Amino acid sequence: MRLGITVLGAVLCSVIGLTAGVAVMSIDLGAEFMKIAIVKPGVPMEIVTNRESSRKTRTLVAFRDGERQFANQAYTTSVRFPRKAFWYLTHVVGRHFDDPQVQLYKERFPFYDLVKDEERGTVLFRTEDGETTYTPEELLAMILESAREYAEEFGDHPIKDAVITVPAYFNQAERRAVKSAADMIGLNVLQLMSDNAAVALNYGVFRRKNFNSTMQYYIFYDMGATSTVATVVGYQVVKMKEGTRVETNPQVVIKGVGFDRTLGGLDVTLRLRNHLAKLFNEQKKTKNDVFKNERSMAKLLKEADRVKQVLSANQDHYAQVEGLLDENDFRAKVTREDLEELCKDFFPRVIKPIEEALRISEITMGEISEVILMGAATRMPKVQEQLTTFLKSSELGKSINTDESAAMGAVYQAAFLGKGFKVKTFNVKEGNVYPIVVEFEKHRTSEDGSESSKTVKRTLFGRMNPYPQKKVMTFNKHYSDFSFSVGYGDIDFLSDLDKKSFPQLLLSNVSLIGVEDAYQKHKEGAEGKGIKAHFRMDESGILHLDKVESVFEKVGEAAEEKDESAWSKIGSAIGGLFGGSDGKDKEAKVEDSDEDPSSAAAGAASEGDQDAKGQNSSKSESPKSDSESPPKKTEEKSSGKQEDEKPSESTEEATEPPSEQEPKQKEKTDEKTEDKTKEKTKDKKEKESDKKEKKEEKKSKDGEKEKEEKKKDEEPKKPKITTIKEVINSTMDSLDLPNLSKDRMKEAKKILASLKAKDKEKMELEKAKNELEAYIFDSQDKLSQDTYVKCSTESEREELNKLMSEASDWLYEQPDDAKKDVFIKKLKSLKDSLKDVVRRVFELEERPKALEALKSMLNHSFHFLKSVKNLTTTDDPIFTEVEVTTLETLINETSEWRSTNLKEQKKLKDYENPKMLVEDIALKIQALDREVKYLINKAKYWKPKTKPKTDDKKKTNSTDKASNETKSEEAESKTEKTESKTEKAESKTEEAESKTGKAESEPKVDEATTQSSESQEEAPKESKSDKSTKKENKKDKETKDNEEETLQIGGSERIKEEHTEL
């Protein structure tokens, strides 16, 4: 039995574990704040609150006294000890040490000790001890880990999958760095979603009925803490293939993006902080300069942020800080005009992201349905004034939650991508912000034998190309090992500061090994179709090189089309897909991959130096036409022989049909000229002619078949083409930002795991201390209460109070690095010393309730026993004598036990150990309840024994038959009487007709009079029949058997009477 229970428990635990893994989360990773959302089975999408019950959490981590701190606790540390807290990490993640954005970060936060990572060339944060350093990825991983802990505590579910939002302007290195941070903590990133796409998805999900097949355009303007992004999106209902069926679902497409990395609320806050610092220095309360004091500047930064928010709703406000510097307080008045004057060069930049987004999307403001605001900085009145002036509109869209919409949109996408959820499809097509090109060397040999090379660029993913998407790059004239580079394309649309963030445009260098060997291997009997590199931009906007392969087409022996197998047809079709053109004019070309149908719908094929506008075609808006494109490619890329043969076949087929129609037309003209009198003879002749014509047609068809077979024998048979693919080994070297090596990644995971273990140990230690302290205070309070005084002696209380005070002193004397086991052991010893008194108090308070319940159970059982004894006197008893005596014995024993123990308990004092325990009373109640329930359940499902049939039933059946026969005879006699009445009525109507004459109008009147007279005569007759039926009904009621049959007979008699009278 115990083994079965343990197995069942293990199964339940495994099921719970499986269902728990279904929960997914989203993290809206902002520079200053992050918002977390969760969705789990049975619970809709919901924003997660942290341990301070706040719906948004600061993106901040601090180290103090060997302990990590997050959220508001870390923010408090950042004000007192700025060097110990690290935030605004999205400025430096995935960037080189010499990047202009890193230098700007140093200017804004000069107290950080930033050093260069010599291995990767990135940034390292050095802590106060001067030895420990952390990469931005490690610090970001700690913040992500805290977000997951908040979500798991909030949802009471372990979480492994998440969708993380990042700014739309994040490049390849930044996106890879964020994903590496998530990998460090074992968080599976379902998608790195751009925050503008997440907001657009959240807006569209709740308005999906408002969209149709016509594209509707919106602008989302997001001004956050550190940057501003304007996005033009289009909503449309499209047909898309899901599995084997085509469904119609809404879709949002990112059409254009404009951004400014340095335009945000933090810039305004820093300017206001510097203004407040100048005001304090002007007050000359101390000789020290406030700009040189890190803690004072951190306090002013906090106050500047508060004042900025107040000035968004008020014209003026006072800034005040207690003990700002040298114990001097600061207080100054700040007006909205002062703030706007400080940011006079800030506000003209507000509209530039919108202009850039409209330019790249090629959409005018007249086509925009609404401009919707996002981000906390859009609450500034001057920002809204600039937007309304540019848009020439007095209303701005404020219909979404600016703080939480990105997190809610991302968690909807997480539920769509995760397992265990079924949500309505809302397709999202994000846009590639930075164009990506492929560079390679093209070698040429001139007539004089000299060789020359030329660098060729081919656009792989143009600007605003939708993704996820796959593309194939084909190199047609490379027969030996070679290399090519992948990098960014034209970035002239960026500002000068952003351009400096791209010291080199190359992303990676790819070297191919084994190209010459592949060509030598298939030198004979095979034609090379080029080297194909398969690229993929995944859902997170990260570029991947999946594989590189060489493709060959081998022409086999000639074979008839009918004899071709299905595999050879598939092979030739695939060969047509991968087969390039003649290769005379193009060295390399880019085409959409045919492996993923959804990728073909995402964007158009790009060839040569085609620009982004040509690539970003309308295919993304009409997936149905895209799904039909691959077969067209196979037709275009089929072999030349097949193309030459197709026109001849079509002409032959066109000359076949006309022979059958000419004889039929002659027959129709002959039929019109003939006379009708000779139709029969003509039909016979026609039948004979039809037979002759059919014979002739068969002969002609047989002849045509023979001719066709002869032509086919004369024509050249189609060749059998097979496609051969050889995988080419490739090595990729990252040039923009090297990824963390396996050793460093392993070391980073080890560091994070040790820090997490320390945090857990610290939490458990604090919990043990708190429990011990709470127990000491609670016990000291209880020992003075009346119940505890009754249940203990004076000496016991004195001893216990002394013990508690000593434990309290001991607790505060313990060092900070004490182990938790010491406090747990101390708590256990205190509970053991107090358990006797606690038990007496419990018995004193709970014993009366238990005795009352026992008394009620005894009364219930006694009355039930009486009813059981009455049921056992029948011939077929429900309960046996053994069952009845068992219950009676149990009731008597329990009653006797209660009376004896109750007398003994009354003799004892309250401070003495009790004789009658609540636990024993509960066992007695349980025994009685179990026995009574057994008997009740037996009575519920008991069935009496069936008795044999007697002769009485036969007698009743015979009497019923006799009564039914007599009633049927009476009904027949009544029908005869009614027939005689109808004959008399007919004779009277004939006499009336003879008297009136033969006028046409009079018969109607006579009919009416006869009908009325008949009704007058029949009225009393009907009343007599009603009386007779009532008598019969009374007789029927007297007989108890076959009541339903008699009622049916009575009803049938009435129907017969009415029918005969009519």
Automatic annotation (TrEMBL):
GO terms for biological process: endoplasmic reticulum unfolded protein response. GO terms for molecular function: ATP binding; ATP-dependent protein folding chaperone. Residues 598-607 have a biased composition (Low complexity). Residues 572-725, 945-1062 are annotated as: Disordered. SUPFAM superfamilies: Actin-like ATPase domain (SSF53067), Heat shock protein 70kD (HSP70), C-terminal subdomain (SSF100934). One of its GO terms (cellular component) is endoplasmic reticulum chaperone complex. Residues 582-591, 621-649, 661-718, 948-1007, 1018-1040, 1053-1062 have a biased composition (Basic and acidic residues). It is found in: Endoplasmic reticulum lumen. InterPro entries: ATPase_NBD, HSP70_C_sf, HSP70_peptide-bd_sf, Hsp_70_fam. The keyword Nucleotide-binding applies. Keywords: ATP-binding, Chaperone, Endoplasmic reticulum, Nucleotide-binding, Signal. Belongs to the heat shock protein 70 family. PANTHER family: HSC70CB, ISOFORM G-RELATED (PTHR45639), HYPOXIA UP-REGULATED PROTEIN 1 (PTHR45639:SF3). This is Hypoxia up-regulated protein 1. It comes from Haliotis discus hannai.
